[in-house]
Amino acid sequence: MVECRDSLLNRIMRKVYTIEMLRELKKYYTYKELSAITGIPIPVLNRYVKGRVLPRDERVSFLERRLNMDSRVEELVRKNIRLVHSRYVEDINLTGNVPLLKIISKIVHKFFGSSSITKVLTAAVDGIPLATVIAYELSVPVVIAKSRKEVGVRRYYEASYYAEDATLITLYVPQQMLKPGDNVLIVDDLIRTARTLVALIEITEKAKANPIGIFSLIAVGDSWKKTLEEKMPLEKVKVIYRVS
Fold this sequence. Notes:
Rossmann fold; two-stranded antiparallel ribbon
């Protein structure tokens, strides 16, 4: 009976995910253009986007194939960022787009789903919205590493690194937030040097927890790979959009 309910819930969630994707795409495409992409008549698309009906199971599978979900998400990420001076990425619109972050969290679930994640770890502040949505999708706590200590907390795991402007930054995580044996997914909105991610890996290791993977919305260039691969196999790093 429980398995039957789970199966029904999964089917409903796939339908909702498909509608959320259509709604996000509708911000950038007309119904005529969406109809050409999906092969679905405009009146039917309108009912889906408005939430008046849910697509049938076979229609969901059809839409997943036609939309090519992962490629569409990459496109939506690109449309929500702005390049400044060729290599600086402004992602305010992206990190504040909660409906899109919810869609992206499904990709995270699919990519890392078999890893038995028990905690999602990020650094304050820009990674917090993404990490929170992913933690909600995975039904696990989110842990935030901050550059200052909390009042009343005595024991911390900490790690330091130098920022691009040579400022020394130390990140702190209360020890009660990470336990030995935790499977930790590390999340950040953007990878440029990977120094923040390395510090988060070091904090995870100090807690005797397991850093099982890294997820980021955007990666700039390739120099970060050499820094990161000393701590994490690159096949365990999932990035949605890469800026060369």
